[in-house]
Amino acid sequence: MTQSRPKLPSQPSDHSPAVPEKLTPKIRSIFFEFLLIGLVSFGGGIMAYERRLLLEKRKWLTNDEFMAILAMGQTMPGLNSVNLAMLSGDRIRGLAGAFAAVIGLISPGVCFVLAAAVAYSQGADYPLANVLLAGVSAGATGLIASVTLRIGRPHFKRMKSVPVILATFVCMSFFKLSLVTVLLIMVPIGLWLHRPASGLIKIDAEKKQ
Predict the structure, then answer these.
(1) What is the pTM for the complete model shown?
(2) What is the pLDDT along the chain (209 residues), one digit of tens a residue?
(3) What HEC string does 170-198 produce?
(4) Domain boundaries, the chain
(5) In Å, how far from its chain's centre is CA 6?
(6) Distance between alpha carbon 157 and the CA centroid of its chain, in Å?
(7) Cα–Cα distance measured from residue 189 to residue 166, given in angstroms and rounded to the nearest whole number
(8) Could you tell me the CA-to-CA distances from 19 to 26, 119, 183, 196, 202 in Å, in that order?
(9) How far is CA 175 from CA 79, 168, 170, in A?
(10) What CA–CA distances, in Å, run from 49 to 22, 37, 39, 81, 168?
C-alpha cells in the first residue's frame, strides 16, 4: 500500500496583494496646507501650526523627524518657521516640496506687509489694527508655550536633560548670548551627559562580533 506524500505548504504566488505604501502628498497639497498656515498665523505661532499640520493633521512626519528638522532649522540663518517649512517640504517631496512649502507659507505675509505699507504710506493711522495685532500676538505667545510643552515634555522628565534646558534658557534670556555661542557651549555638554554607558558599548560590540 503506497503512502501518500505529505503536502508541502504552498509557496506565495507572485500575484499576492502588495502591502499598501504610504501615499506621497501632491505638491499642490503641500502648497495649500502651508498657505493656510500663512493665512491664519498672523502675529506669530507659525511653528505651532506647522507642528500640528505635520504631526497631527497630515502625519507627513514622525515625531523624531520633526525634532531633527526643527533642530536643523534653528541652526540655520533666517526665520525658524521658514527653515522648518523648507526642510519639511524637502523631506516630503524633495526640492519641489521645499519650494511649495516656503512659497505657500510666506505669500500671505508678503501680501499683508505690502498692503500695510501702502496704507501707512498714505499717512493714515489705524489704532484699532494695532490693538488687534497686539491681541493676536498674545494668543500666539500661548500657542508657542503650548508647543514648547508638547515638544519638551519627554525631556522635562529626564534628569540629564533638565540642566541643559535651564542653562540654555538662562544663556539666551538673561545673558543674551547668540545662538551659535550657546550651541558651542551646550552641544558638547549635552553629548557628554547623554553618552552611552561603557557597559552598553561593550555589549553592542559583542553583538556585532
Answers:
(1) 0.62
(2) 445 554 544 444 444 344 344 578 999 999 999 999 998 876 567 888 898 899 989 999 998 899 889 989 888 888 889 999 999 999 999 999 999 999 999 999 899 888 877 776 665 556 666 776 677 777 777 877 877 887 778 778 888 888 888 999 999 999 989 888 998 998 888 888 878 766 555 555 566 55
(3) HHHHCCCCCHHHHHHHHHHHHHHHCCCCH
(4) 27-154, 158-209
(5) 57
(6) 21
(7) 13
(8) 21, 56, 43, 37, 38
(9) 22, 10, 7
(10) 23, 6, 11, 10, 24
| 3-state secondary structure at position 45 | coil
Question: Nearest-CA neighbor of 186 among 208, 166, 157, 202?
Answer: 166
Q: What is the dihedral of CA 107, 111, 113, 118, to 10 degrees?
A: 160
**Number of H helices and number of E strands within the chain?**
8, 0
